[in-house]
Amino acid sequence: MNDKPKAKRPRKRWKRVVKWTLGTIFVVLILWGFIAYWTSTNDCERYSGVPTDPIKAILKCDYGTPDVLQVKDIEKPKPDDTQELVRVRAASLNPLDGHFVRGMLLARVMGGGLRKPKDTRVGVDYAGVVEAVGKNVTQYKVGDEVFGGRTGALAQYVCAKADRAVALKPATVTFEEAGSIAVAGITALQGLRDVGHVQPGQKVLINGASGGVGTFAVQIAKAMGAEVTGVCSTRNLDLVRSIGADHVIDYTKEDFTKGDQRYDVIFDNVQNHTFSERRRVLTPNGMCVLAGIGGAGWHEDTWSHMARSFTTPFMSKFTSQKFKFFIAELNHNDLTYLADLMQSGKMKPVIDRTYKSLTETPQALAYLEQGHARGKVVITVE
């Protein structure tokens, strides 16, 4: 009997190579993250000097609660040959503004700045009066009243590309109303038209019908000829009816996913129901448009709502009912479409509160983040 121990088989070289390669990559990623975090900075320091032609603007130099927002003097922008200079009369806040101020992880990783916000300006929606135009601008002239979307809208002046997200303001619409439209209005329009493909006679449910996007969605769906059901809380039932909803559901008393009605399109601003629950009330080839995660602020269920924006579209690949997440794209043509709806009386912005000065921006954002705003929160610019 041979009880001589067997010689160990030599360890394969490729296993060592893989091990050391993966280890090296891991260490490099850790070092990159550490360096990127501590070298992350912004341009707030350049605003420390005295501008030669100062204007007031809201800046976020650090991440945090709305209290980190500051009113600072910056240099008045000068339009290039393709831009127009707009004297801002009103601007509004959107949930995304709050997420960027607080430094939502996804926003930081996607280029918003790891340790400090890379872009220090705040706000997108605005309305105002054209004060100057570049030599190549033919669409607008000095004195025109316009509205649109531009990063840094919470300021006394903005420069905007004349062929981008800007349009003439209808004379019957106030600056406060027009300054509330861009992000929320276009999100509702593109979600219903381009993603949901809403057709006359279809049944459309708006979950979160009393919020900024929801109040626009109810009116736009009605203008498209749909039969609209709005889901909201008890105190907002009359509001949602007043803007055109054919039916309203009080979510504090009734769960729309347990009802007998089936919908061709669910426009979901909240995502507080599971994939299977929403499928149950969709028609066999229905569409669920994922338009939000439950409003502004950070709440205990924000993570789960956010995750559904990615998981449910994948799960719906295996069903006849589709779930689609989208990001709205601001543009001139859609702003003009919304202006025409307002001009014809088919859409009217719903404004919850109007704050009277840029200095009140922290209070305005704090109110929006409470999650109970009915329609939009607007700031007039002195």
Keyphrases for this structure?
seven-stranded mixed β-sheet, Rossmann fold, Quinone Oxidoreductase, Chain A, domain 1, six-stranded parallel β-sheet, single chain, 24% strand, globular, 2 domains, 382 residues, alpha/beta
How would you summarize this macromolecular structure in one to three sentences?
With 382 residues, the chain is of the alpha/beta class.
How would you describe this structure to a colleague?
By secondary structure, the protein is an alpha/beta fold. It has two domains: 47-181 and 349-380, Medium-chain alcohol dehydrogenases, catalytic domain (Quinone Oxidoreductase, Chain A, domain 1, Alpha-Beta Complex), CATH 3.90.180; 184-325, 3-Layer(aba) Sandwich (Rossmann fold), CATH 3.40.50. The protein is built from eleven helices and 15 strands. The protein has helices at 13-39, 95-102, 105-112, 175-178, 182-195, 212-223, 237-242, 275-280, 302-315, 332-343, 361-369, and strands at 54-60, 69-75, 83-93, 125-133, 145-149, 157-161, 166-168, 203-207, 227-232, 247-250, 263-268, 282-290, 322-325, 351-355, 376-380. Strands 3, 4, 5, 6, 7, 14 and 15 form a seven-stranded mixed β-sheet that branches. Strands 10-9-8-11-12-13 form a six-stranded parallel β-sheet. The protein has a two-stranded antiparallel sheet with strand order 1-2. Helix 5 crosses helix 6. The protein starts with 12 loop residues before the first helix and ends with a strand. The mean pLDDT is 91.
